Amino acid sequence: MKISPFKRGDAVLILGGGPIGIAVMLALQAKGADKIIVSEVSRKRQEFAQNFGAHHIIDPTKDS
Prior knowledge:
By secondary structure, this protein is an alpha/beta fold. 34% of the residues lie in helices and 20% in strands.
């Protein structure tokens, strides 16, 4: 059963930069995501997401 319509080259938004969000981000990188956007409130988790290869970080308390 295929759950996601994701295909190589897609842009993705990950809600949350905790352990699950980072794992999803790494899996999507391996599948060929071109643009990974992470939405995260915590500054430390934003840094983790950036270090693990997120292309853009959004702070939902500051960005709409």
